[in-house]
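name: query_chain
kind: protein
chains: 1
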Amino acid sequence: MSEKAKRDYYEVLGINKNATEKEIKSAYRKLAMKYHPDRNKEADAEEKFKEATEAYEVLIDPEKKAKYDKFGHGAFDKNSFNFSEDIFQDIFSQFGSAFSGGFNSSNPFEDIFGFGSSKKRRGPSRGDDLQMSITIEFIDSVFGKKSKVSLNKNNICSHCKGTGAETKEDIVTCPNCNGTGEKMQSMGFFSTIVQCNKCNGKGKIIKRVCSKCKGSKYESSFELVDIEIPAGIKENEQIKLTGFGMPSLEGGPRGDLYIFVHIKPHKYYERMNDDILLNVPISIKSIILEEEVAIPTPYGEKTIKLTKNTKPNAILKLSGYGFKNRRTNKKGDLIISLEPYIPDINKTDIDKLKEVFDNSKDSIFDKWKKEF
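structure:
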């Protein structure tokens, strides 16, 4: 349809500019039924059907409708206009399961009405991707790790060459569709082309399945593969192994294998973004005597010096002792929370401590008490 030949969209649907969404849908539904090419064999039926569909797509969309009301057909580039599959799912959903699978083709007319060539191919498709999971230790997520993993790799069956049949003679034409892979399905006055449910659209069925792969078309073998787990990897991140997915039965490239990495929780360390959290029990003796304490970190022990001013639940930070950020290449920190505790002491030591404390002056408590 040329740009000059285009009629007013409201005129096409037979509605006025104030029509509601319900009225627009109703008008389009009537025209779609009237000019559907499977029902109407007139020479211009398909053209009128497309014209109604184009008008509907614009007027049912508030943004497109506003542009059309303001600029007319000039609001849209005719070379970029595409029919929306949502139209057909919305309008024809009432006709049952024939449309329940959605639209797989880039041409909605081909999906619904069988227009165009459904046999067009862009070349052999690639094999399916596969997924698997592995679990690593917390420390391995800090430093990374190279690991050998035995993978079950699928290959095309060497006996049936991917046909799933015992012999070539066991592959016969589907009697249900006569090899077309399609059947005409009628629903009252409405009919459409659907996939044959006996051969699943292949046009062929198998009398005897392959004795080696039992009809699966694949055989498996184990392969030892080196997997490199990067330092700083996070829970549920993926590692991609190119070409370790399913092979293509059509001669295309293999799919890929995606390995989801799970990290085993550590008894003491906890991750927070690129930082590591650690609760450290500290004896009040070490605080009073201002001792040095060796803190275990993923990178080895780090000595810190305590002071008598160290408060319960004090937070200390060791910069650069956390996870490596793979994007910035910088390391997070080790965040230490000190948890003071009273060590076990006998009665003799308690008496000695009592004597020491009795001779000391508790200035903080005395100052606080004076506030009352």
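note: The two ends are 93 Å apart (CA to CA).
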